[in-house]
Write a structure and sequence with these properties.
Layout (H helix, E strand, L loop, with lengths): L7 H4 L5 H4 L6 E2 L11 H12 L12 H13 L8 E4 L2 H12 L5 E4 L6 H9 L2 E4 L3 E3 L2 E3 L2 H9 L4 E5 L11 H14 L2 E5 L20 H6 E5 L2 H4 L7 E4 L3 H8 L3 H5 L3 H13 L1 H25 L4 E2 L7 E5 L9 H9 L1 E2 L1 E2 L10 E5 L4 H16 L1
Parallel strand pairs: 1-13, 3-4, 3-7, 7-8, 8-9
Antiparallel strand pairs: 2-10, 5-6, 9-10, 11-12, 12-15, 14-15
Helix pairs in contact: 3-13, 4-13, 5-6, 7-8, 14-16
Organism: Microbacterium amylolyticum
GO molecular function, one term: lyase activity
EC number: 4.4.1.13
């Protein structure tokens, strides 16, 4: 079974960033929101909460940690201690607070471009500086530059922001690579903060390896930050969680100010519990749709956008497309928005390797995706 997106006329009634940023003549395929109806269990719990006015603060204890623990075991075979799961407002708040907890002002943190733009901006909040060690493009896909990361640690970097699965390439880093990364970090006394928000969207037949599951080195150096928000389209409800696998790192998280946990949204907690406990069928139907949309995007680009290069990733609903041979310049997203009336993310915002690239959100209907790529094709042929 595949999940169907909502029709365009209903989507245009939404007031979130994806649908409110541009006018009705623009097809929005940029920000990481999806166009599907809420999973029925989530709609049910939120509707019931509204009915009884259950819109207050998050209580000190919920079953959210236990719900995630069961989900992690069921989906990935990952054993998590519920006592080492602490909620926060969203993944990037968790990342910022963790960086503050494991670094001193002015210290350097490794990022691996092309990567999620907030990985560059978070350092203003955490009072750190980033050093970029770009991914390596290999015949087997995008890989971490482990030698470059080792060198960056040797030159003084004290932490690394890991994106696993990686945004925008969709790469789910393999277990051996992650274990070696953990060994390198441990040898330098460095920390690894792993953003694993896209993990529930790993494609059928592909493997996701949680960083903390790769051995004692990872347990020693690692912190993971996750959420149901990307998979179940819950970003506005404000709930994510931090996971640790050692007592020392659990204590570091416990020392983070309590206000960080208070900022979790009650609706986010409720929706997350419903997603983790009752959302498997909906999630699997979504994943089947995304597999289909990936293949459709490959076919559409080949037919309508000669010169575009796209290698489908292991996870997520975001496509990293090389447009350098299309003649649209270093920032093709600007031309595409202006002349094709399609909003995609500019590759430049993902770091220096993004020159000439765009990121396309294919978490939508085949009809919208087809219309968007056909519009871009008309621009290319003009």
């Amino acid at each position: 079974m595949m999940l169907d997106a909502l029709p365009l006329d209903e989507l245009r009634q939404r007031s979130s960033t994806k649908w409110a940023t541009h006018g009705d003549d623009v097809l929005p395929l940029f920000v990481a929101e999806t166009d599907f109806p809420l999973a029925a269990p989530i709609e049910r719990v939120l509707s019931e909460a509204l009915r009884i006015g259950d819109t207050g603060y998050v209580p000190p204890k919920t079953r959210y940690p236990d719900s995630f623990v069961s989900f992690a075991q069921r989906r990935w075979g990952w054993d998590v201690d519920p006592g080492r799961v602490r909620t926060t407002c969203d993944v990037m708040m968790g990342v910022a607070e963790l960086l503050r907890a494991v670094t001193k002002p002015g210290q350097k943190v490794v990022v691996t471009s092309p990567v999620y733009p907030p990985f560059f901006g978070v350092h203003e909040e955490s009072h750190t500086e980033y050093v970029d060690v770009p991914l390596l493009k290999t015949p087997g896909g995008w890989k971490l530059d482990l030698h470059g990361i080792d060198q960056a640690f040797a030159e003084g970097a004290v932490a690394l922001l890991l994106c696993n699965p990686h945004n925008p390439t969709g790469t789910a880093h393999d277990a051996a690579t992650l274990a070696e990364l953990a060994r390198i970090a441990a040898s330098h006394g460095a920390a690894v903060v792993s953003d694993e928000i896209h993990a529930p969207l790993t494609m059928p037949g592909r493997d996701f390896t949680p960083f903390l599951s790769t051995g004692t080195d990872a347990e020693k150096v690692g912190f993971a930050v996750l959420s149901a928000s990307k998979a179940f389209n819950l970003a506005g409800l404000k709930c994510a969680h931090i996971v640790t696998a050692s007592e020392e790192n659990a204590q570091i998280v416990q020392r983070i100010p309590v206000e960080v946990e208070w900022r979790t949204g009650l609706f986010g907690i409720k929706a997350g519990i419903a997603a983790f406990e009752e959302g498997d069928e909906w999630l699997d139907a979504l994943r089947e749709r995304l597999v289909s949309n990936q293949q459709l995007l490959v076919e559409l680009l080949a037919e309508h956008v000669p010169g575009a290069v796209y290698e489908p990733g292991d996870a997520g609903f975001l496509a990293w497309v090389d447009m350098r041979a299309t003649g649209l310049g270093d920032n093709p997203a600007a031309r595409i928005l202006e002349d094709a009336r399609v909003a995609v993310n500019p590759g430049l915002s993902f770091g220096a390797p993004g020159v000439g690239f765009i990121r396309i959100n294919y978490g939508t209907s085949p009809e919208i995706l087809t219309d968007a790529i056909e519009r871009i094709g008309v621009l290319i042929r003009a």
